[in-house]
Amino acid sequence: MSSQLKEKAEEKLENNYFSGKKPNNSALNNSKVNLNELVSRLNVEKKKERNQNIILSVAAVSVVTVFGVILAL
User: Fold this and answer.
1) Which terminus has fewer CB within 10 Å in the chain: N or C?
2) What angle do CA 11, 17, 20 make, to 5 degrees?
């Protein structure tokens, strides 16, 4: 392992939130988690993923159908 990689790894450990050092940003200490917002984001992400899966499935079925028609000729 090169010395540069070791230095980067040590920097990451030093900057790690769980290293025992408190973050300097006071906004982190004063912020609250809005569960309703998180749940709504989760639902939006699920809808996007569902739509992407449907599009991918339709594309796969279309390719198989076209390939089958070409082989049948």
Assistant:
1) C
2) 95
Domain that holds residue 57: 3-72
Count of structural domains, the chain:
1
| Three-class SS of 19-68 | HCCCCCCHHHHHCCCCHHHHHHHHHHHHHHHHHHHHHHHHHHHHHHHHHH
CA atoms in the 13 A half-sphere facing the CB of 6? 3
Greatest CA separation for the chain: 70
The tens-digit pLDDT sequence of the chain (73 residues) is 566 666 666 666 555 555 555 555 555 566 888 999 999 999 999 999 999 999 999 999 999 999 999 999 8
pTM for the full model?
Answer: 0.51
